[in-house]
Amino acid sequence: MQIREALELAAARLRGGPHPDRARRDAEWLLLQITGKNRAWLVAQGDEEFGGCTAVRYASLVERRLAGEPIQYITGEVEFYGLPFRVTPDVLIPRPETEHLVEAAIAIARGSEAARIVDVGTGSGAIAIALAHHLTSHRLTATDLSEAALAVARDNAQRNGVSVRFLHGDLLGPVADESFGLVISNPPYVPEIDRPSLSVEVRDYEPSTALFAGPEGLDVYRRLIPQAFRVLNPRGHILLEIGYGQADAVRALLEGYGFFSVRVLPDLQGIPRVLDAMRGKD
Question: Hey, how many other C-beta atoms are within 10 angstroms of the C-beta on 274?
């Protein structure tokens, strides 16, 4: 069988899966990943024979994708904010919309060369590592309740050549006696009631502890916001990613605990995606 034929058969197989609109693209991506080649090679060498162990492995990856497994977990790779990250089922897959959170943090942190930043619920380490890459004079700390996630994050920090202090523990518990200029988090915020409506990729493969946060999706915000007030310097910032329709509720929580100057930052679709607030005085 030729390479081109194997690709077409894989694409046809994936059209029967949960994402038929991405069948050809996914089939091609898996093929390039398993061969270590690029699209130019595929175009130029598509008539070459394709078989043996590589063909067997390719068929196995296609079947995993057909079952709904995220392609990022199959390949173990994802790009975030221009940097490469390893991902496993122990961590949430970094989303492009979370890059808005990073952009806002960079803009705020560059106003203070001595800023100390803590990323809460770091997962793969994507946020903390992206910040450490762009804010070389700042000190980055990241926490997570999952030891397995922290192992992935530490590996990603080493891979990207940055220094981040990773601490195991719940929310800001590991740094409760410290002070920071910026607390940043993309916490779990999906309401439990939304679980059945999620795609199979998210619902059945990504870690539920990184997704769901009670009946309204607000449980983690309720715990994190008062903790953030205690560790932030006066006029320090908190940056939070939020879910659809949660802006007013999270704003009310922030203001209720003494934060002010709350800003709502939309994503590229105009959907409120990030809340930025400043800590008031005690």
Answer: 24
Q: For residue 143, which of 38, 72, 224 has the smallest C-alpha distance?
A: 224
How far is it, in rounded angstroms, from Cα 139 to Cα 131?
A: 10
Radius of gyration (C-alpha) of the chain in whole angstroms: 21
Question: How many angstroms separate the first and last alpha carbons of the chain?
Answer: 71
In what helix (H) or strand (E) does residue 107 lie, and over which residues does it extend? helix 99-109
Residues 105-158: tens digit of each pLDDT: 999 998 775 589 999 999 999 999 999 999 998 999 999 999 999 999 999 999
Amino acid found at 97 = E
Distance CA 251, CA 246 (A): 8
Q: Tell me the sheet residues that pair with 118.
A: 141, 183
Q: What is the pLDDT of residues 81-96, one digit of tens each?
A: 999 999 999 999 999 9
Count of other CB atoms within 10 angstroms of residue 252: 12
Q: Under a CB-based contact definition with an 8 Å cutoff, are residues 42 and 28 in contact?
A: yes
Residue with tokens 């590991």: 174
216 CB burial (10 A radius; 0-12, 13-18, 19+): middle
> Quick one: tokens of 172?
């800001």
CATH of domain 77-279: 3.40.50.150
Question: Over 80: is that where the pLDDT of 160 sits?
Answer: yes
Taking a C-beta distance cutoff of 8 angstroms, is the pair 156, 98 a contact?
no
Task: Check: CB of residue 264 under 8 Å from CB of residue 245.
Answer: no
pLDDT digits over 124-137, tens only?
999 999 999 999 98
- Which sign does the torsion angle of CA 18, 19, 20, 23 carry? negative
Neighbours of 94 (CB within 10 A): 24
- What are the residue boundaries of the structural domains of the chain, listed by start? 3-68, 77-279
Helices (H), 161-246: 200-205, 219-231
Q: What is the pLDDT of residues 207-237, one digit of tens each?
A: 999 999 999 999 999 999 999 999 999 989 9
